[in-house]
Amino acid sequence: MNKVRLATVWLDGCSGCHMSLLDLDEGFADVAAQIDLVYSPIADVKEFPRDVHVTLVEGAVSSDEAEEQIRHIRERSKIVVSFGDCAVTANVPGMRNQFKVDDVLARGYLENATINEGIPTLGIPRLLPQARPVHELIDVEVFLPGCPPPSEAILYVLTELLEGRMPDLTQKTRFGA
Amino acid sequence: MKEPTSLTGKKLGNDANPARIFTMTIDNRLLTAREDETVLSVARQNGIYIPTLCHMEGLSLRGACRLCIVDVKGAPRVLPSCVTLARQDMEVVTNSDRVIEYRRKILELIFSERNHVCSVCVSNGHCDLQALATELGMTHVRYDYLYPKQLVDASHPRFSVDHNRCVLCMRCVRVCDEIEGAHTWDIMGRGITSRVITDLNQPWGSSETCTGCGKCVQVCPTGALSEKGKSVAEMTKRRQFLPYLQMMRGEGRK
Fold first, then answer.
1. Residue spans per domain, chain B
2. Which of B54, B78, B204, B212 could form a disulfide with B198 if both were Cys (CB 3.0 to 4.6 A apart)?
């Protein structure tokens, strides 16, 4: 039997959704045999591979690099899952959206800095004017809200997708969880 | 103080002017209703669920949120059940595809208009808006979020108002006017720029009419109004006082 090629991506989020994924514990044993983890922050793969069946995207799209990345991911994934509140609503990363990027950076790196004052520019992606939910940039098949989504809901989504069904998340998780 | 529930304007239920009883159907169930009862009230009495957000038992009827819309046979549009009176031979459907889709859209628009960041909200887990999203199966918002710039007023010694989380249900306005009798709260602006204000749009802490009773905080469906000193998910609202106060005042009028 061909394994399902699963990828997970970490954009502008706190990694809490990935923590919740790891919290599946022995739940992983149930699905591990059917999954090939081809790309993830917890797997050492440099480039997002081709022909991925399911991609879990954690985090909002906040930088020019993330925007490029998410479009690339869309091209190479059959099913994209918005994984957690940041991906679904922009959540906490989106709280900067009321302000101009320059003001946000000045606040963080100048006004509140006690050492090494200065806005970093070298070797890091440029922030977009606003952090946006994933589905405002690309088509998304499944939405899994929660901050973080409970492990049971993640397992439910994975097992449904492995069975070839589209998961219905009504009543299974909530924003902010 | 306004009489909180009557939509018909006349005193009913006395011998000279008895209330008429109608027969109607809701979701194909044959039901009876008094002429001064709303469709929502009849549905609730019969265990038929209609989602609501701005509605609150014990306060005047407002029809602010439109989440309680229903299909009524013969009506050209959907009607808000909380301010629609029962009629003879009325045929109501509470869960048609059209109604369900409109409710979803209304809820999504409410979320997109302000900055409802549930994960860092004092009312996380105790919020009517958040619960509605789960109930109505809203897993995402199809409209672009507006991320409007909204302020927080923490000038009051015991309470604060966070406009990021306000849904303009007007429960605070109504409870302050109708129950406390102070009318500190009101709404200013129009449409999407509307917001709740205290007195003549001055900081809450400098309000001369506010009695500090906190009723507005307790009836607020979201984390917009909260008690100071409460952190994420710690703000639970206590609303038991409302039916109790109404009952005691009813006793007093006799």
1. 22-95, 113-238
2. B204
